[in-house]
Amino acid sequence: MSQPQTYDAIIIGAGFAGIYAVHKLRDEMGLNVRAFEAGSNVGGTWFWNRYPGARCDIESVHYSYSFDEDLQQEWQWSEKFAGQPEILKYLNHVADRFDIRRSVEFNTRVTSVVWDDESSLWQVGTDDGRTAIARFIISGAGNLSVPKKPEFSGVDDFAGEVYLTGNWPHEPVDFKGKRVGVIGTGASGIQVITEIAKDAAQLTVFQRTPNFATPIGNHPTDLVEEAEQKERYPEIRDASRNHFLGVPYNQVQPSALAVSEQERRKVFDERWNAGGFRLFIDSFQDILVDKKANDTAAEYIRNRIKERVKDPVTAEKLAPKDHPYATKRPPLETNYYEVYNQDNVELVDVKAHPIERITPTGARTSEGEYEFDVLVLATGFDAMTGPLLSMNIRGKGGQRLEDKWSDGPHTYLGTTISGFPNLFLITGPQSPSVLYNMPLAIEDHVDFAADAIAHLHTHDLHVIEATEDAEDNWVQHSNEVAEATLLPGANSWYMGTNIPGKPRKCLVYLGGAPTYRKICQEIVDEGYRGFDLSAARKFSVL
Ligand code: N01
User: Fold this and answer.
1) What Cα–Cα distance (Å) separates residue 35 from each residue in 113, 134, 446?
2) Which superkingdom, per the lineage (predicted)?
3) Cα–Cα distance, 444 to 258 (Å, whole number)
């Protein structure tokens, strides 16, 4: 048996996080790194989610790396909100430009990550039976990378084709002339339904919870606007980093309840027409914290939906009433609601009449039988904690991460875990992560890990570990901040409630990226407050 390879750092994943981590640690710090990626190429989320209609909901000029000025100047987006193929092309371009692939082992899934108390090193097992050793682990395993397992009995007996939006085939799927059933109306469902409705002979949408979807406002890149943006990219990036969601929106007003109905309508109309996430994040500051303020936005959107859907019964089914606006992730759309005006589309309410089973020819609900040739599951992900818990991570004394997190995640800053030294989570649970612009959130976290490693090196130390106290305080703070918002009141993947048996805990830090960044900076400036740094032997390359 050959000796395990030893690295300074092992990086898990080659999506936005893994690509930047390889570049940062290898090219800028001179570390000996290796990345393991389950897919056959780079891309992460954008590699797996190649369903028709997959598109980014943040403007591409913002949803892109900021770490290299030449890169951001040279890349040109063809649309305001890029589709999945273009984002994947961009990530391949970045991988080429920085020669990332030579440090990545593709088609290699990490199956265990075990801390060795004696050597203070991590042992990483992969699905090809090998073990590799590293001082540091950077997990770029993603937040929405473990699709939820189908909850319906009978899926295996279905005689037609079955597709999962989160693990879509590389070959195009032809829906022309076919009867298609789609389960799920979250962000993925809404995007894929809009596309499938164009081709399918018959489309049956099984909706459990209607969503507050609002127009994305996509259009081909305006070259004048692009040139102007590129000229002041550093300023735009600063503004993004100082915004709750990581986008340079700056029109938010204090309270939806402090203005007249007419003024409120004007603000909502402007944000609706401008598109993107403006309606929820750039209209009124109290939308996410005050139910009455939220009700005004919710009612506005419900009315907009009803204006667009001709059949009043269908319109009523599509209008969300059981959760405040944006307490589930608000999807963005183009012509989604109009789909239900087509003769080939039927909406089935599976909250009123749950799916009992998938049959060989379709689905059976408590109300009746539905037949289709193709089943598309847009049923979501085991978000945030799922990717980490799927890797058999064992910390000091053999502690299993799944035991430590049996009542929900415990992290310090969403980047580190007490009892799991030298393990850095990129956009982990209890960080702003999915409620921040991901490429920027990722850059912040990779930089945080890189700085911590450099700090250890400078001080002749080699282990960094969050203290239990610091972690407990962060978990408490993160939960308290969440409780001050409307999010914990809704069932959503933010709260873990989409997965049966998953603890109901807010998985996202809701204090906003600017506050979060300030807290992280203070902790670093105070010599890594809340971390134990310990001395021992030096690591190999540094
Ligand atoms: O998953 P979801 P998603 N019976 O969990 C339904 C990101 N994203 O893949 O709400 C019947 O939101 C479920 O119903 P309910 C984005 O952050 C980004 O759509 O639980 N229905 C829901 O309708 C997003 O939020 C982009 O009642 C069942 C749907 O399936 C996140 O990924 C694009 C069911 C799942 O919705 C996840 O979105 C796409 C059951 N047993 C996604 N189980 C871009 O910005 C689940 N459902 C590009």
Assistant:
1) 13, 11, 14
2) Bacteria
3) 36
What pLDDT does residue 116 have? 96
Say yes or no: 81 and 45 in one domain: yes
How much is the pLDDT for 542? Answer: 39
Which tokens belong to 385? 């904690």
251 with 134, same domain: the answer is: no
Number of domains in the chain: 2
Q: How far apart are CA 5 and CA 2, in angstroms?
A: 9
Residue 156 lies in a domain: no
Q: Ligand 1: which of 379, 433, 492, 497 to mutate, most ligand atoms within 8 Å of CB? A: 379
How far apart (Å, rounded) are the C-alpha atoms in residues 245 and 429? 16
Q: For residues 289 and 427, give the distance between their C-alpha atoms in angstroms, rounded to a whole number.
A: 23
From residue 488, alpha-carbon distances to 133, 280, 427, 481, 508 in Å are: 40, 17, 20, 10, 11
Q: What is the pLDDT of residues 402-454, one digit of tens each?
A: 999 999 999 999 999 999 999 999 999 999 999 999 999 999 999 999 999 99
Question: ∠ at Cα 104 (99, 107), nearest 5°?
Answer: 135
Taking the centre of ligand 1 as the mean of its atom positions, its distance from the CA of residue 328, in whole angstroms, is 9
Please identify, by atom number, the ligand 1 atom nearest to the C-alpha of residue 185. 23
Ligand 1: centre distance to CA 57 (Å): 14
- Given a contact cutoff of 8 angstroms between Cβ atoms, the answer to whether 123 and 129 are in contact is no
User: Which residues lie with the beta carbon below 6 Å from any ligand 1 atom?
Assistant: 55-57, 144, 151, 165, 183-189, 191, 208-209, 329, 350, 355, 378-381, 434, 493, 498
State yes or no: pLDDT of 90 exceeds 80.
yes
Q: What is the pLDDT of residues 41-61, one digit of tens each?
A: 999 999 999 999 999 999 999
CB atoms within 10 A of CB 167: 14
Do 329 and 209 reside in the same domain of the chain?
yes
Co-location of 398 and 495 in the same domain: yes
Instruction: Tell me the CA–centroid distance for residue 212 and ligand 1, in Å.
Output: 13
CA of 187 to the centre of ligand 1 (A): 6
> H-helix or E-strand containing 89?
helix 84-97
Q: Return the exposure string of 60-71: e unless at least 16 CB atoms fall within 10 Å of the residue's CB, then b.
A: bbbbbbbbeeeb
Amino acid at 203: L
Give the domain CATH number at 33. 3.50.50.60
Tell me which of 81, 86, 188 to substitute to probe ligand 1's pocket, judged by most ligand atoms within 8 Å of the beta carbon.
188
The number of the ligand 1 atom at minimal distance from the alpha carbon of 58 is 45
Taking the CA of residue 380 as reference, the ligand 1 atom at the shortest distance is: 1
CA–centroid distance, residue 358 to ligand 1 (Å): 19
Are the C-beta atoms of 153 and 166 separated by less than 8 Å? no
